[in-house]
């Protein structure tokens, strides 16, 4: 029987009374031990406290609510690229998202919402309290910028999923003032952009080895570009992606190997949620991102949820190496030597979340060392291509698009020919298609299709309805806790 862990769960508006303390090991600022805790009344005294508080922000990003079941059903299951997976009787609530029959009382809606507001409350605590600490001013400014980046990222996930959401810019205290109505998504987007602009102005382009994985200037600019894309601010998208391109990122040469643990935080990575198997510390090794999607029925695999669909398998052009690098097929042997027997319950699994079975350590979650890729340079290039096309710069659009295709084909010469069309509509379609196959199984497809205005066309056969399913329902528990101050989305 599976244990569906709910890591670090607090109520949405409650005050977090403990800060997680980071012990010393390989990814020191990320290896947070929840057993080491400090009373909040004695906290916020010095630079060490500030460091612990910011580290706790990053630790929570890999929690169950942020990367496991609740993130998958909200950000992936409704799309045409993913099926429920596992066995028919296992976690049947996935089907409610797959066929768009979910109602406001389904628990994952609440847990994903809670996870994002946990992140936001951590960030708000940092932003409220660190300014008063006497410490190195440069580090203080950077810490505040890191908090703004994560707050923006979490609000972006919320506004894509639910539309209007309460905009909390101060740490929750449990007072009546915490009960606020939903804020128009235009205002939420404006705050997200403000946070990312301020973060990008401060964050460094890179870090030393001890701090790899923290938010960078490139991460803030790239996330800002994505936020602008969802608002169709094409001039801004073009400017922001051009800035990222100028920072020196490059596509990792081997598409498949770029997702393996030994190549985390590579030249293509703008931001990843960091994960690590910390020997002797299962609590700090808590990511279940890979575990819930891993190959079911084999030691070192996983639970087999969120599996690639036949629609996705058919979407790749003939000979596109990304198909075999994205999908583990039943009966194949992976490039790392793992044979997938014919007895596993699903025909396909997500290869981007795959960790070789030999890396499994008994007593730890399968694949707990696998980072969750949030933003890659390939995504930036495709955003740049789309923005260039929308603003009439066909030459730049083709250049950026074809860089992604060139990396995908590698040394092959007879597949993935460069796109040459100069027709804006045809080029737009080609860019959208490239996003589908390049970013497959990375929790983008569902919201990509909706922001492109194609929800009914693509998801209609699954039950998607216009003027309703552009967003998920607001959790009924939140409405009840607010005394009906929060309102429900239309159609739910």
Spatial ordering of strands, largest sheet = 1-3
CATH 2nd-level architecture of the domain at 19-60 and 103-202 and 454-492: Alpha Horseshoe
Low confidence ranges: 3-27, 32-36
Class of the domain at 19-60 and 103-202 and 454-492, according to the CATH hierarchy?
A: Mainly Alpha
Mean pLDDT: 93
Name the descriptors.
two-stranded antiparallel sheet, 18 helices
Offer a concise description of the structure.
With 492 residues, this protein is mainly alpha-helical.
What does this structure look like?
This protein has 18 helices and 6 strands. Helix 8 packs across helix 13. The chain has a domain of 181 residues: Serine Threonine Protein Phosphatase 5, Tetratricopeptide repeat, CATH 1.25.40. It is mainly alpha-helical.
Secondary structure blueprint with pairings:
Blueprint (H helix, E strand, L loop, with lengths): L46 H14 L3 H4 L1 H9 L4 E4 L8 H5 L8 H23 L7 H26 L22 H16 L16 H14 L3 H12 L23 E5 L15 H5 L11 E4 L1 H6 L5 H6 E3 L18 E3 L21 E5 H14 L3 H16 L14 H15 L6 H7 L3 H5 L16 H6 L11
Helix pairs in contact: 1-5, 1-6, 3-5, 5-6, 6-7, 7-8, 8-9, 8-13, 9-13, 13-14, 13-15, 14-15
């Amino acid at each position: 029987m599976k244990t569906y862990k709910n890591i670090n769960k607090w109520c949405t508006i409650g005050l977090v009374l403990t800060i997680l303390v980071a012990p010393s090991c390989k990814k020191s600022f990320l290896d947070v031990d929840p057993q080491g805790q400090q009373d909040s009344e004695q906290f916020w005294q010095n630079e060490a406290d500030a460091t612990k508080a910011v580290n706790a922000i990053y630790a929570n990003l890999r929690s169950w609510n942020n990367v496991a079941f609740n993130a998958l059903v909200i950000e992936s299951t409704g799309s045409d690229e993913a099926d429920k997976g596992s066995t028919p009787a296992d976690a049947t609530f996935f089907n409610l998202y797959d066929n768009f029959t979910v109602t406001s009382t389904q628990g994952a809606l609440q847990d994903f919402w809670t996870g994002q507001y946990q992140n936001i409350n951590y960030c708000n605590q940092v932003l409220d309290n660190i300014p008063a600490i006497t410490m190195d001013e440069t580090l203080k400014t950077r810490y505040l910028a890191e908090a703004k980046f994560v707050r923006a990222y979490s609000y972006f996930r919320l506004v894509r999923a639910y539309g209007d959401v309460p905009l909390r810019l101060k740490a929750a205290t449990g007072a009546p003032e915490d009960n606020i109505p939903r804020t128009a998504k235009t205002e939420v987007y404006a705050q997200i952009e403000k946070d990312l602009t301020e973060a990008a102005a401060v964050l460094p382009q890179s870090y030393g080895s001890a701090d790899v994985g923290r938010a960078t200037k490139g991460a803030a600019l790239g996330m800002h570009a994505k936020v602008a894309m969802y608002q169709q601010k094409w001039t801004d998208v073009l400017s922001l992606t051009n800035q990222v391109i100028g920072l020196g990122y490059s596509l990792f040469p081997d598409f498949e190997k770029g997702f393996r643990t030994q190549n985390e935080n590579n030249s293509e990575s703008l931001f990843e949620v960091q994960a690590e198997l910390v020997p002797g510390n299962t609590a700090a090794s808590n990511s279940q991102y890979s575990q819930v999607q891993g190959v079911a029925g084999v030691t070192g695999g996983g639970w087999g949820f969120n599996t690639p669909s036949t629609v996705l398998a058919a979407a790749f052009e003939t000979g596109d190496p990304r198909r075999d690098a994205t999908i583990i097929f039943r009966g194949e042997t992976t490039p790392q030597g793992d044979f997938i027997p014919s007895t596993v319950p699903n025909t396909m699994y997500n290869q981007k979340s795959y960790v070789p079975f030999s890396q499994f350590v008994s007593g730890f979650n399968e694949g707990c060392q696998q980072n969750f890729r949030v933003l890659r340079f390939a995504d930036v290039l495709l955003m740049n291509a789309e923005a260039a096309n929308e603003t009439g710069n066909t030459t730049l659009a083709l250049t950026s698009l074809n860089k992604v295709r060139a990396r995908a084909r590698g040394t092959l010469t007879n597949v993935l020919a460069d796109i040459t069309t100069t027709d804006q509509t045809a080029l737009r379609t080609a860019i959208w298609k490239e996003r589908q196959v390049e970013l497959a199984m990375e929790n983008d497809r569902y919201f990509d299709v909706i922001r492109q205005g194609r929800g009914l066309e693509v998801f209609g056969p699954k039950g998607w309805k216009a003027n309703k399913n552009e967003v998920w329902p607001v959790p009924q528990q939140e409405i009840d806790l607010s005394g009906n101050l929060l309102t429900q989305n239309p159609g739910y």
